Amino acid sequence: MARITSGVATSHVPAIGAAVDLGKTADPYWAPLFAGYDWTKEWIKAEKPDVVILVFNDHASAFDMNLIPTFAIACGENYKSADEGWGPRPVPDVKGHPDLAWHIAQSCILEEFDMTIVNQMDVDHGLTVPLTLMFGQPENWPCKVIPLAVNVVTYPAPTGNRCYALGEAIARAVDSFEEDLNVQIWGTGGMSHQLQGPRAGLINQDFDIAYLDDLVQDPERLRKMDHIEYLREAGSEGIELVMWLIMRGALGENVKELHRHYHVPGSNTAVGHLVLRPE
To answer: Which of 10, 57, 72, 207 is deepest in the core (most CB within 10 A)?
Structure first.
């Protein structure tokens, strides 16, 4: 049977991808940020996931104001790196797992989650940066990836509670898939940051640390957090953190924290990272 063996949370700052692509990871500004992922790179080599369900948000690459799905699961075979205005990142194509993706879509829809099914799209830094942070610069990504896009760009975003419940439904879907697969689920985006307006550059370290703590110890508090609290405390883009709750919901009630990294700043963003194991 397929099983979700671990969860990963990480920021997906576009400048991180540029730093890797341009060979700047050892620069004094960037080196402390990347050092926090050294442990995870070694860990994931040993874990050898077959499939990663990667929860991310599209940044107007695959979707725009003409089409805004709240939850979109990609069920295709192959996804290319999107051109976000300066050319596609020089990374491998992402290979999907259509059988498991369609199974998750069917299971979640029959549990009354309105999933949008996508068979063709390009994927932007929201998905490729986390892969780079975990796997470096391989010729091919070492596992299959199921992209799960969440709307956190245009109001209204889904609630934390709805995201957590979707994670629970995804776990049930994976558990009912008959192929023997080692599956990981990643929640990406965040942490506190704001890209525009009078509060551009906002970083709230106290909020971020509390969020990391409660993701492990008290996810029920985070399930109840209102949108306005994310906006007030974590900035307009801090709402991306609801995507971490999909990952957390898929891991069950109790988890063990295997690794944590928090770094300020990564570009104009607080960078957070957790590796969790269900218990």
So the answer is: 10
Distance in angstroms (rounded) separating the CA atoms of residues 190 and 42: 24
Spatial CA neighbour of 239 closest among 158, 130, 164, 124: 158
C-alpha 196 chain-centroid distance: 22
**Sign of the C-alpha dihedral computed for residues 134, 137, 141 and 145 taken in this order:** positive
Report the 10 Å Cβ neighbour count for 199. 13
Burial of 67 (0-12, 13-18, 19+ CB in 10 A): exposed
Contact 92, 80 (CB under 8 A): no
Spatial neighbors of 185 by CB under 8 A, at least 6 apart, are 4, 7, 8, 52, 53, 54, 55, 167, 170, 246, 247, 250, 251
pLDDT tens digit at each of 279 positions of the chain: 999 999 999 999 999 999 999 999 999 999 999 999 999 999 999 999 999 999 999 999 999 999 999 999 999 999 999 999 999 999 999 999 999 999 999 999 999 999 999 999 999 999 999 999 999 999 999 999 999 999 999 999 999 999 999 999 999 999 999 999 999 999 999 999 999 999 999 999 999 999 999 999 999 999 999 999 999 999 999 999 999 999 999 999 999 999 999 999 999 999 999 999 999
Cα(36)–Cα(25) distance, integer angstroms: 12
Compute CA 208 distance to the chain's CA centroid, rounded to the nearest angstrom: 16
Cα–Cα dist 52/33, whole Å: 23
Please state, in angstroms and rounded to a whole number, the distance separating the CA atoms of residues 238 and 230. 6
Residues assigned a catalytic role: 125, 193
